[in-house]
Amino acid sequence: METEPRTVVVIPAFNEQESLPAVLAELADTVPELAVAVIDDGSADATADVARAAGAVVLRLPFNLGIGGALRAGFRFAVEEGFDRAVQFDADGQHDASQIQVLLDALDEGADMAIGNRFGSSDDYEVGATRGLAMRSLRWLTRRLAGQSFVDTSSGFRAVRRPLLERFATEYPVEYMDSVETLISACRAGFDVREVPTTMRARAGGQPSNRSFRLVYNYLRLLVTVMSSTLRRRPRPT
Questions:
Q1: Which of 76, 95, 111, 230: CA 20 to 30 A from 87?
Q2: What is the pLDDT of residues 40-88, one digit of tens each?
Q3: DSSP H helical segments within 81-177, as ranges?
Q4: Regarding the domain with residue range 7-229, which homologous superfamily does it belong to in the CATH classification?
Q5: What is the pTM of this model?
């Protein structure tokens, strides 16, 4: 008898005490069969406390590493605890728990990583002019370097299965725009990466991490980093 893959929802969280309770409650109502791990990324508020109160596993980082560092810690936890799949989920209320199954279905169909495309559903998801321009540039960059076209290259709503999960547990980039770097590196390493349409909501609380000047700086940094790091292709593990 084939057993169901063990799945954990990994939630990086930095000062998200305001929105996190509703996020965890929705997960408990929608996907109660999935484990939930909150990575408290050096928060100064009660993020860890509200996560524990909701029954989630909490991993506390001693100081703020950024989303990349928090995700690496979460993926390492998933591997060490024997999970077969991990779902990357935001703490700010933007992701819809009912859409998790869409990502997992893609993994069941053979994908190593499934990416939730915010622009592929009937709902309109709007971004500002600066971010829109940057995202179009990233689509071009990703297509050139990954050899595959994606619409939502910076989506943080993803599901990953082994052996890619094992790779991310040790090599997930800790710098800003980790989502694009991992997308390109996974494709170049021969993993099956697929994009599926999902819905997205506005933030429920907390502080957004993106500002126009920071976006410009980090997209330029990303261009240099990705061009240099992803040209060294590693073979896919067997």
A1: 230
A2: 999 999 999 999 999 999 999 999 999 999 999 999 999 999 999 999 9
A3: 100-108, 129-146, 164-171
A4: Spore Coat Polysaccharide Biosynthesis Protein SpsA; Chain A (3.90.550.10)
A5: 0.83
